[in-house]
Amino acid sequence: MKLPVVLLVACTFATPVFARDLTDAERARIDRTVETVLAETSAPAASIALVLDGQIAYAKAYGAAKLSPRVPATADMRFPIGSVSKQFTAAAILRLREQGKIKLDDKVSQYVPEIEHGAEITVHQLLDHTSGLRDYWPQDFMIPPMREPTTPMAILQRWATGALDFAPGTDWQYSNTGFVAAGVASERISGKPLFQQLQEGVFAPLGMTSVIEASVKPSPDVAGYTRYALGPVRAAEFDRANWMYAAGGLAMTASDLARWDISLIDRSLLKPDSYEQMFTTTRLASGKDTNYGLGVMVNTTNGRKTIAHGGEVTGFLTQNSVYPDEHAAIVVMVNTDGSGSPQDRIADRLAGIVLPVSAKDLAVREFFDMLRTDKFDRSRLTPYGGSYFTAAVIADYRGSLAKFGEPDLFKLRRASERGGLDTRSYTVRSGERALNVLVRMGPNEKIEQFSVGPLPD
């Protein structure tokens, strides 16, 4: 069932500062994109915020925050953000470091002696997932112990004692346990609860007025939902107090998360060296790059740097992606943990709408559109490319791609050089249908090869 759009409403918290106006066509594409993904995945609601030119350019919510009775989603509603919270825990530690109260190469045993192998693990390794501490929640569903409240120390006593999964610094393995330990360390050093540290040192200075501790009490604004296989949407059971804590315990509006993203782009809150520490990826003892900094994934994909993290708690998914060189960010929150990754689909497709497109990528998209219509332009081809596109080939491309429809995602997946040609692979989606497009380009963006087929496994 296609879910209706809920228009942006005036925020009851801090009002976003808006950047340049999007065009009516861009707004329509954004709205259509989110509505389409909600319909494809049966996700009840989504809340988005877009940062362009270093300011919030668009914030809107769609669908139903609660299904029974139905409550429309609005942009001032707070969604649990799951592991996106980790970068805030890292910020708390970095602020203590700026105050001279902790060093990243300190041993964890100085602050949390209850951890059995704490004398072998550094604070940095807690925050970059190289500690070797066993993850207490590797599952993507709520395990039975989560039906009872816990404490951070109870988690550490159960999962941070006994053998390590590997020697610290020799491997990378996602560990919520490490961030629980970092949260406990920050509280013992500062003498303040983690949330109070963040409220005073991060949220208040940035005007993030909506943030609450979902780890203590679920958000009153939205309900979480799930699906089993391809079954109906069902209410999700939320984990009890303190299970997410420093590893994933925050809830906020999409606009407030965007405010944090703007501070990462501008490097406006922490000291310069703290941002260098956060954004510098860790290398293992073997020299392998983990592509993970302190609480954030850091990648360069086809020349575009991204600082990103996903988040999941029972009933909710979040994707937060920052593009510092473009002064842009995309925040997507949904109230489901069901299949289909709606948060990723929305974020990917919105990136294709609002982020700058290179001349080569634009040329590829235009040629694809020519092939599926009756506007074929042979001047776009090299001589070899022209020899391939005979009248019969053009007819087959047009007949099949016309049925494929208007793409809602045209994403560059990989770029390389081969035989003097710029070789590019794209993922192209229209609704539930997906294609692989392989392009080889010569000088002046002339197309030597343009192949369309199924996505590779």
In short:
31% of the residues lie in helices and 23% in strands. By secondary structure, it is of the alpha+beta class.
What does this structure look like?
By secondary structure, the chain is of the alpha+beta class. The chain folds into 2 domains: 273 residues, 3-Layer(aba) Sandwich (Beta-lactamase), CATH 3.40.710; 95 residues, Nuclear Transport Factor 2, Chain: A. 31% of the residues lie in helices and 23% in strands. The protein contains 13 helices and 17 strands. A hairpin with a 4-residue loop joins strand 12 and strand 13. The longest helix is centred in the N-terminal third of the chain and has 18 residues. 45% of the residues are buried.
Question: Helices and strands in order, then pairings?
Answer:
Elements: E1 5-6, H1 24-41, E2 45-52, E3 55-67, E4 70-72, E5 79-80, H2 86-98, H3 123-127, H4 152-159, H5 176-190, H6 194-206, E6 212-213, E7 225-226, E8 234-235, H7 245-248, E9 250-252, H8 254-266, H9 272-279, E10 297-301, E11 304-313, E12 316-323, E13 328-334, H10 342-354, H11 359-371, H12 383-388, H13 391-404, E14 409-418, E15 421-430, E16 433-441, E17 447-453
Antiparallel strand pairs: 1-3, 2-3, 2-13, 3-4, 5-9, 6-9, 7-8, 10-11, 11-12, 12-13, 14-15, 15-16, 16-17
Helix pairs in contact: 1-10, 2-5, 2-6, 4-5
List keywords for this structure.
13 helices; Beta-lactamase; Nuclear Transport Factor 2, Chain: A; disordered N terminus; 31% helix; 457 residues; alpha+beta; four-stranded antiparallel sheet; eight-stranded antiparallel sheet
